[in-house]
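Bench notes, afternoon.
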Amino acid sequence: MTIRFRFSKSDMITTAGVAMRPVEITSSGGIFERVGQPGITETFSHEELSELIRRPDTSYYPAYFDRASQEARRGQPVQQINELPPRVRRLALWRKAVCDAFLTLSASGDINRTHDGFARGRAKLSEEVQRLLGETPETRRPAKPGTDIVTRQLPGSRTLFQWVRKYEKAGFSALALIPATHRSGNKAPRWCPRAEALMNQVIETYADTQRPTKTQAIKENVALFEAENTRRVDAGAEALVIPSAASIRRRLDMADPFYVYAKRHGAAAAASRFTLFDSGPDVQYPLERVEMDENRLDVISLLTLSGIWDHLPRERQERFESGRRWLYIAIDCATKCVVSMRLAETPNSDDAIRTLRDIFEDKTPIAKAAGCESTWHHHGGIGTLVTDMGSAFVSDDFQGTVASLGVTAHLPPAGLPWLRGHIESFFRTLGHQLMPLLAGRTFFDTVQRGDYPSEQLACLCDDDLITILLTYIVDIYHNQPHGSLKGETPNAAWARLVAEHDTAPAPVPDGLTLRKAFGRPLSRKLRGDGVMFSGLTYSCDALREAFLHSPERSVEIRADLRDIGWIAVKVGATWYPAIANQSGFAGVSYDQLREGMRAIRHKYRKDALIDAPVVLRAIERISEANRRAFALRELTPFHVTDADVERSQAALRYPVRSDAERLGHISPSSDPLADGIQISPRGTASNETQNIAAPDDAHSKKRERRNRWRFNDDE
């Protein structure tokens, strides 16, 4: 039930700095007029008034415009008794008790406002005051023998009558009885204008880039007074009174601390020292605000993927290059979950873009490859991406990728790390919790490092380092209570916010958008069966039309190396998805295809074309250890680069065929070109022949070299 408020026209309410007074109060609400702006009114219901009163920027002043209230506030240092120091508050309340006791006895006729009447009723007045203050023998708490009992002496009749008159005039407010000692003291200026000007020079003397001490600045200021007095004496004028060193120091202590620090250390240093901190932006949804940054790890590691360090002799170990890797991290501000991570040799836009790409993917397979027990399922669309002004983040490639995804990018000014407090706090947590456990750590600075032999103790390879980082983040950090989450773990916060909010700040980009945004442009020639990439051919209606009618014989493609089942091709000004003509490659990564092709090439070295089912079976035979290695290598500097893809095209320039589909052993593809007749070089063994004949027999005889020709040769 909403409480109905009763206001007087002399009341005042201030909200958001706007002062209003009641004009009319009804059963449904009230009409309020702005103070100083006659005719400007606002209407509030009782429910709105109830919410308004509870707001932190709202204040209610009952009887504010009454004459008695104005008299009570006149010249008072506070607006409420509780704002006073305890000693002054007790004195004001005692005076109030004296006035209340006098008015009570005056109403009963036991005392009156004359000197004789006050003298006759003084004893009763003292008893009544003690009763109001709870200081009677019956109510007073028993004290130990010998304890001093403090009692206040009643004022004289003239003083009491002054208190009572002020008390009544102020509407019986205790504010009128506050001692006026705050207004006491000598208010006259103690120094002449010239002396004031000279004394203020101590601030400029101290606020200098040479950073003199306060003692030096005070001595120089005294010297200014002495020089000024010498000049005045020579001119026949009166000498100035030289202030004491304590007076000059007090004047120096009154200086603006920001101004002094800025003059002594610079404006940037002052801005950093006098930073106004806040709790940060208010975020409610997972991935509503994501902060990304790069940081050099405080550990020296071996710059290699080798995992056989312990088995190498000492002289071989000394040949390995060691150094410090850079770590790219993206963290969700709402849940404090790490949504992406990657090692890098140096800060660069390519690794920053790959870190951004991982935010949209479920990274549980990578976590499982590192042996983590928890899942790394945190992914989704981004609302706002916040980075610093690093070269990798301000590059055209990174900013173009962010803009292509439709993500709002914020780049706070350099030198203000608190504007990205979540990611900076995580790096500090990483340095305090994980780095002390690693051999070869470099500590936070050379002073803390001391004589610790970081280079000699370096023993972690890149695969070991990424495994440790994944284990810490996925299994430890995501499952330990977080201070900014009020003791809740990041995993629990993610689950809670996902359950509370049905909608995300932004949808996850579709596959075509991801390929256009993150794929690097590659050019391929048009063929009768579409275009070829990594040994597979891809086709779509737009490619077939371009092959028949377009004068341009090459198209731009963009591929996702994690899924080579289809690619994005640009025909004209439009991007289209092109599906692989060979079925069964959906979800296959480029690493798996290259490893399968390598195994087949090693076994059948002289075969130009390779049958698709053979490649797929080779991919299935890839060990789980190799698959885990592929997944972990993707987060290290040894991932597949664009240069590696181009270099591999020489080994994969021959297409992967699918005789099983052509001969009807499996259901045909919906692509008409994929069901066409495969033209292969003469003498190439079919899949069935390879399955029947032994590999040694099939390649025992040296083949005769003949001139070969085929359609759509890219060479």
